[in-house]
Design goal:
The chain has four domains: about 160 residues, no CATH class; about 80 residues; about 70 residues, no CATH class; about 80 residues, no CATH class. A six-stranded antiparallel β-sheet has the order 3-2-1-4-5-6, covered by helices on one side. A five-stranded antiparallel β-sheet has the order 8-7-9-10-11. Strand 7 and strand 8 form a beta hairpin. It starts with 15 loop residues before the first helix and ends in a 12-residue tail after the last strand. The longest helix has about 40 residues. It is an alpha+beta fold. About 45% of the residues lie in helices and about 15% in strands.
């Protein structure tokens, strides 16, 4: 068992990045410890192929160190061999259920206040579970809480706090880091491919000479690939979570405004953008990028309507929920929303929402929130195409629902907007029948 050592020094500050990294590393250590326990015991009792046999039984691939698997498998399946590796009794399974709920809340980005206020109760829950399961993780939870107490008391001197106002800046920084991480991953993959060609060549020569030389892969390259994948996954998690937190936040006075053309009530949004002259889009000069895609497929149509109110190249103050304010005759005037709220509320989504809900990951995976099943494991080809289409419209992922008509919708700034349509053959089994 090889714990991730990051928890030895996390968290250092009460800010979103440290909070998210702490809970993510903690959850990965849950997967590492329980996965190691399951593998050692079940390999001895059943044999080295026990996980493959379980995958055949469940009809999907399973990741031994995935917290969703190590917590959900024994909780949801009374026939699971993993139950023999754990205590039993109602109290323990209540603790297990609570631990899985914590994992899901953070993994599905239901928690948008990324602070110690929400981290501490989650650590408490995981500590209770870890102690009842006889896990070394319980001591890690205790150490995290001690560090948090030191930070809050001022005993531990942190370097600064990243507050909600800087989430957008942090998100842009993380997206740049993710691109670099993807480049590093690609480089390692190319190195591995080149090394494999050399190994194949050496193996062929050894076979021709009837040599007993054994050719093995380069362990350093395999380690580098594992590290590159872990770094990419961590950055994807951070981007998803911060995007969800930013989406959930709203400027004061942004909820109950009067109609278009009326004076804006409350603080003026801080984000400034320019109305582009040649296309129906806005340009953020600070971030050096266009804006429409952030707010869903109806944004360009709404921007076209703004041209009737303000002239090209005008400065528009844009709230986090897509509402625009422009100064006219010295007064801040509400000019409309990038999300066509009236059309969405009047039934732009046809049919009725099914009870199922999902999460679109930044890598294109679609996860069933209730079971943790990944569409890619069920229907690989369809999942790739559907995930790509959804990411084109929601590049940072987000919550998904599906209607009885097969429309997949995403919540954009609090409003459900349809993104694509699927058939029952391409979706999770039984979810559209």
């Amino acid at each position: 068992m090889n714990y991730l050592a990051a928890l030895d020094y996390l968290p250092e500050e009460d800010n979103p990045i440290h909070v998210l990294t702490t809970i993510q590393v903690l959850m990965r250590n849950v997967g590492i410890e329980l996965g190691d326990r399951y593998n050692k015991k079940l390999t001895k009792e059943i044999g080295p192929d026990w996980l493959q046999a379980l995958q055949n039984l469940r009809g999907r691939s399973l990741n031994l160190n995935d917290p969703q698997f190590v917590l959900g498998e024994p909780l949801r399946h009374p026939d699971s061999p993993t139950r023999s590796c754990l205590p039993n009794g109602k109290e323990f399974y209540n603790n297990l259920d609570n631990a899985l709920a914590v994992r899901n809340a953070w993994s599905h980005h239901d928690i948008t206040d990324l602070s110690f206020n929400n981290l501490v109760p989650s650590i408490d829950t995981m500590q209770v579970f870890a102690k009842s399961a006889g896990m070394a993780l319980a001591k890690q939870c205790l150490a995290i809480k001690k560090r948090i107490a030191e930070i809050q008391s001022g005993e531990y001197k942190n370097k600064g706090v990243v507050d909600g106002a800087t989430l957008k800046i942090e998100l842009d920084r993380l997206q740049v880091a993710l691109e670099l991480a993807k480049q590093r991953e690609q480089k390692v993959l190319e190195d591995l491919e080149a090394a494999q060609l050399l190994l194949d060549s050496a193996a062929n020569k050894a076979s021709a000479a009837e040599s007993s030389v054994t050719v093995v892969p380069d362990p350093e390259l395999e380690k580098a690939l594992a590290e590159a994948l872990a770094e990419k996954e961590q950055l994807e998690f951070l981007i998803e979570a911060i995007s969800a937190a930013e989406d959930a936040s709203a400027d004061m006075g942004d909820v109950s405004q009067k109609g278009i053309g009326h004076k804006w009530e409350g603080p003026i949004p801080s984000r400034q953008v320019k109305l582009v002259s040649l296309i129906d889009d806005l340009y953020d000069t600070n971030q050096r990028k266009y804006v429409a895609e952030e707010f869903g497929p109806t944004a360009s149509n709404e921007i076209a309507k703004w041209r009737q109110i303000v002239s090209a190249n005008s400065t528009i103050f844009l709230s986090s929920q897509g509402r625009g304010v422009a100064y006219m005759n010295g007064d801040p005037i509400y000019i409309g929303s990038l999300i066509d709220e009236s059309e969405a509320e009047l039934g732009e989504i046809s049919g009725f929402f099914k009870h199922h809900s999902y999460v679109l990951r930044i890598n294109g995976d679609i996860e069933d929130r209730a079971t943790g099943d990944i569409l890619r494991d069920i229907s690989p080809e369809a999942a790739r195409d559907i995930g790509y289409e959804l990411l084109m419209q929601r590049p940072t992922g987000g919550p998904l629902r599906i209607t009885t008509d097969g429309l997949v919708a995403s919540r954009v700034k609090g409003i459900w907007i349809p993104l694509t349509k699927v058939t029952s053959q391409d979706w999770f089994p039984g979810h559209l029948s």
